[in-house]
Amino acid sequence: MQKHILITGSTDGIGKLAAIKLAKEGHQIYLHGRSADKLAQVIAEVQEVSKNQQVKGFVADFSDLNSVKQMGQKIAGELSQLDVLINNAGVFKSSDIHSKVGLDMRIVVNYLAPYTLTTQLLPLLAKGLNTRIINLSSAAQAKVSHRVLIGKETQSTQETYAQSKLALTMWSFHLANTLSGISVIAVNPGSLLNTKMVQEAYGQHWSSADKGADILYQLAISTDYEGITGKYFDNDRGGFGKAHQDAYDSVAIQNLINTTEEVLSNNG
């Protein structure tokens, strides 16, 4: 059965590879990129490689939450349903440490942007069949600093990246507890995969990018994961595992959600 699948950050890396794999299966694929020109090139490439013309795209700069909102509105206006949302877009190193409203770039792109987009698309996701939300977490997870989250303190790139990924994981578990009929899984696609982001950050890799793409493909459509929600898949270990302890702390999660809503209302 054909699925309608949106993958953010899919003009390169594991997002693009997963899109190709899913397009080859005949699914309707929606790509996302920051550059309209690059997005158009990748759409044409995926169509050619997969022999599937049902590949479209949406443009948004995930460091700008207003751009994310505009993309969400466009998607909601054009699509009749969405069966799978893969929140894959992410950043580690950036020439700009802060967004134009003063929030850390990693917090915005890796957490606040997918939070914003997903919230907008929930009515569309509710119309999907066996709907799944796949959120790209990481083996790197660190206790979320309130001051970092609200943009009042700057910490190291690695530390803030790890905080953004724990925030995403905590929110994933919160979503799983509040949504009915929609599965939510946070996934570490694998450490030091051979992607542009990893090469820029570390200059080396441990595994091929296909390892990450393969698990996104599986989590998106495999019947093996049907009905599973509120869990963390650790692809370094090849199965479901334990996230950071704060991901299971209901008080910490509620504090995160409250602060997140406050930040979004102040920067909306």
The share of residues in extended strands comes to 5-15%
Tell me the Rg in angstroms: 17 Å
Structural class: alpha/beta
- Helix content range of the residues, please? 40-55%
CATH superfamily: NAD(P)-binding Rossmann-like Domain
> What is the averaged pLDDT score?
91
What's the total count of β strands? 8
Q: Could you list the spans in which at least 5 consecutive residues all have pLDDT below 50?
A: 197-207
CATH class: Alpha Beta
What is the approximate shape?
globular
The CATH architecture is: 3-Layer(aba) Sandwich
Assembly form of the protein: single chain
Question: What does this molecule look like?
Answer:
This protein is an alpha/beta fold and 268 residues long. The protein has one domain (4-266): NAD(P)-binding Rossmann-like Domain (Rossmann fold), CATH 3.40.50.720. The protein has nine helices and eight strands. It has helices at 13-24, 36-50, 65-78, 105-125, 146-149, 157-178, 196-202, 209-221, 250-266, and strands at residues 4-7, 28-33, 55-59, 84-87, 132-136, 183-188, 231-234, 239-241. An eight-stranded mixed beta sheet has the order 3-2-1-4-5-6-7-8, with helices on both faces. Helix 1 packs across helix 8 (209-221). It is globular and about 50 Å long. The chain starts with a strand and ends with a helix. Mean pLDDT is 91; it is low at 197-207.
